[in-house]
Structure formats: structure tokens, C-alpha cells
Design goal:
The complex is a heterodimer of chains A (about 280) and B (about 300). Chain A is an alpha/beta fold. Chain A folds into two domains: about 1-85 and about 240-270, ATPase, nucleotide binding domain (Nucleotidyltransferase, domain 5), CATH 3.30.420; about 90-235, ATPase, nucleotide binding domain (Nucleotidyltransferase, domain 5). Helices cover about 40% and strands about 20% of the residues of chain A. Chain A is built from eight helices and ten strands. In chain A, the strands form two sheets. Chain A has a five-stranded mixed β-sheet with strand order 3-2-1-4-5. Chain A is globular, with a radius of gyration of 19 Å. Chain B is of the alpha/beta class. Chain B has two domains: about 15-120 and about 270-310, Nucleotidyltransferase, domain 5; about 125-265, Nucleotidyltransferase, domain 5. In chain B, a hairpin with a 5-residue loop joins strand 8 (about 135-140) and strand 9 (about 145-150). The relative contact order of chain B is 0.19. The chains are: A alpha/beta (about 280), B alpha/beta (about 300). At the A-B interface, helix 3 and helix 5 of A face helix 3 and helix 5 of B.
Amino acid sequence: MIVAGIDVGGKNVHIVIKKDGQILEKGTAPTGIKKAEAVEQLYDEILKKADLKRKDVKRVVATGSAAKRAAFASGFIPDVAADARGVIKQIPTARTIIDVGAEEGRAIKVSAEGKVLDFAINEKCAAGTGTFVEAMSRALEISVEELATIALNATQIIPMNAQCAVFGESEVVSLIHQKITKPDISRAVMDAIAGRIGSLARIVGLERDVIVVGGMARNAGFVDSLKKTIGMPVAVPRDPDYIGALGAAEAALAEVMTEEAKGKVPEKENVTEGKP
Amino acid sequence: MAQGAKQEFWRWPETSWVSPNIDWKKGELITAGVDVGSVSTQAVVMVDAELFAYGNTRTGSDSPNSAWNGMNFALKKSDMKMDNIDYTIGTGYGRVNVPMAQQAITEITCHARGANFMYGPAVRTVMDMGGQDCKAINVDERGKVLNFIMNDKCAAGTGRGMEVFADLIRVPVWEIGPRSFNISKEPPMISSTCVVFAKSEVIGLLEAGIPENEIMAAYCSAMAHRIMELLNRLGVKEKFVITGGIAKNEGVVKRLEKELKIKTAEQVWYNKAYRNNNVPFDTQIAGAIGAALFGHALLKMGKAKSTRKA
């Protein structure tokens, strides 16, 4: 049986196609301004790569802040639920999930069954999101990847005073003028965002194991700073930026299984939509 | 996106003024206030507590230089020298780094005092809208601070946020206010609070073909709303006045008045002689005026000694 999970976020769309529990194909693309078009285009590309037609996919579930842009999906699940499903499938010992995307940060408390017990979200402020790091990398005139790596070579800890990304850019420029090295500034940037995320996670309470997902989980400097900030080890699953899409695919699979167990597979029109 | 010649849309005009009517050599006490903000620096020179000269400049990369820039700009059209000044007080974000100052006083105290001088004793609430912070201040009839509330954490609702927006939409910052009213209907406000997220939202609106003027209106509304939240927490009392750079942006001020259902006081001098002599009314110099007035008061009370050299 083939199902698809689609995660439409602030900056990128991620799609996973699963067949009988195995990942058949996956892909990502920037959402750009015309999100709906970007989603449709990527979905068709991935189907083509997997040599499938749209009708071959039994169920499509979408998640993410712009989930509704995947108009062809038959169901929608909240992003915290997708994160929980996606992580628990890979790491059953997960109890706290920290998801740091481009424009949102989330801390989620989950049960052993992958049920969301509590969560906290920041979607109002760029401090504590990937966008903050992007802005700082522009001020430093290096790529985000380089910033993430050189932060690990820092020789001193410089606290950043600014919380706001706009003020942070000016602060980074003034640190450059003070002849602070780029690795040290990068570390300061990572500590700043880790501090924001740490505060968010403390709202729901930190319980091991702590798992970091989302685009920022690929950022080694950030993961290192986060460990130091919360004083706990953190783990990064495989494909951390695909966790939302994987969780959505899990939800699609679960829906089909439940319906089959009940002995009826409703037509697309009859499916009640979940909250995005 | 094709970029033309690099133009700095955020760059607002710097101003200076010297009184043609005051002979400073006949004055008893000459005091100065230097307000080094994060974005702009103002220097004000007062002769016996009357406005003699001011300079309003952009803050550079370090406070001492910016303070000197402001001071030199204020004095350049007069024959007064720094050595002729009895006492100087620094204020603003960079107040501890004002090299010519003998003392530093917080900008909240100074803005309250300055607003009292500029707008008169009936002022009860002062909203200082600075470059990187905004403060709502309740004051008494002498311009003394009773209570205040400030945002210095977030660029939303600050001058810097407006500058970022001006640069993004490529419209000179002083044109945004007037152009934001040149619309057929008032659009819904920008929904993102964060300036960084608002930028993405604005790009989306531009892409969707929304007229530039409407986007300016939407941004001004969002800013007004943000300031209103701060004011509501403090409690606004009339006479209500705005100081700082955003006071010059009618797009924000008029929308704020509409939301609050309270008018801001007209931007004219309380002192009739200033009005009759056409002394320019610059909302950005309130802090520096306050500082210079405190210098005068301290000398008068004998709590400070003149450091005049010539």
C-alpha cells in the first residue's frame, strides 16, 4: 500500500512516499511565494521519480503551517502531531521533541505511544527560528552551513545582547568591528537561538530523551549549543527535516488501516478533515 | 531582482538650527544635552534654559564619535565653541560614552522633561518612539516621570523596523506616511508582528500585485497597533504627545490616534515666542532638550559646578 506525507512549512516543502512501511521516494523544494504551485510541482516530480501516478497513492496527509496549500491531500494533521508520530516511529524512547524550522520553533512533550501531552510554539518572533540564523549569516557574509560548522571552533563565549533578529544583525556587525572572530560570533549566534529554544522547551518541561528535528537539527553548531544550554544530551534522528512529512505519512497509513479494519474505505469526499 | 544604483531609502534628512535672536555671550549659563540613541544622535545647546542651537544626526558605529558629530553639527553655524559651555549632560542608549558630558541621565527622565518643555505642562503621557526601542511614559505637570513601560527587545514598533521596511519597499522613509493615505481603501494590517516575518509577508503582497501605497498603509497600521498595545498597558492620559522619529510619520500617528480614539497634541511649541519666531519643532530633540534643562537646573541649585573653560 502506498501513502504520502506532505509537510508545507514556512520556507520549504517536504514530501515522503511510503510503500508498505518503507520510504519509496522523498524530496524537498523551497515553497517560495506561490506555495500551492510549489507543492503540486514537487509532488508530481517525486511521483514521476517513483514511477507512480496520483491514483496509485491510497492516502495523502498534509501537515505544516501551510498544510492547506496541499489542496489534493485528503486529510490534515497538526504539525505537533506529525512531529510526534514521525519521531516515535524512529526513536520510541523520545519524550521531548524540539522542532526548529525556518519560521517556527516548537517544543512537544510526548508519551511512549506517541501521543502529544503538551506543547509550546513560537511563531511570532524570528528569534529562535532558522530565519534568525539566516539573517546572522548574511551579516557575517558566510553561508548558513559554514556558520554552523565554524561555531564548533569557537574559542570564547560571547553573549549576544539582542534578542530580535533585526537588532541582532546590527550587533553582529558591531562584533565584527570589535575584531571578534567569525567562529566566536557564530557560536554567539547559536547560543542565542539555543537560549530561546531552551526557554520554550522549559515551558513544557524537559524530559529525556530529547530529540531535535526540523531544518535546524542539521546545524551541528546549534545542536551543540542546545546541549550545553539545556544540560542534557540531545539526539538527532535520520532525516530530521523530513520528520513532519514522515509523521504525516504515518498518519495516512494509520487512517487507511483503521478504515480497513472497520471494513470500509470511504471515498475522498467523505473524509472529514482534521485541523491543520 | 535587478538592483539599480544602491540607494539608502532609510536615510532620513539630518537637521541643525541656530537661534538668530539669542546673543549667547550675554547669557549666564550655557548648558548642553547630548542624546546618543542607537539610530540617531541629537545635541542641544541652551542659553539660560532657552533653546539656542541643535543638531540631529545619524549615530555612527561608536558613541563618542557620534556625540561629537552631533555637537559639532549643532554648533557649526554659530561662533560658540565647546569650551564656552558650562555643563553637558549625556542621555540615550550611548549616554555613558558621551566624552564631553559631565553626567549621564536616562533618556526616559530626559524625554519626559523635554516633552514638558516642548508641548507644555498639560502633557500627561509621552510616547517616545526611538530607533531601537519605544517607551510610554506618564508624567506630572513638571515633566517628572510617574510611570513608564518600554519595549527594547523587539524591532516591531520601532524606527529601525520602519527603516527596514523602507529599504525593502524602496521608498524613502519620509514619503511612507503621506503615501500611506493615497489609497482607495484601508487595507488589513500586516499580520506578522516580527519585522523579519513582516518582510516575507510584504514580499508576498508585492508579488500578488497589491499597490505599494496600500502595503505602506498596512505596515503603518501594524506599527500603530503594536504601539497601542504598549500604551494600553500603561494607560494613556491627555494631553498625549509623541516624541522621537516616528512622530514625524503621520501614517503611523494618525492610525494610532484612530485606534486609541485619542488625538495627539499638535506639534507646536508651548512657548509662544518660539512659535512666533518660527523655531523649527523637531520631535527628535526632546531627550537632548531635557538633558540640557537638567544641566541648567543642577547649576542653578548649586548641585553641579560649571566646567566652562572660555
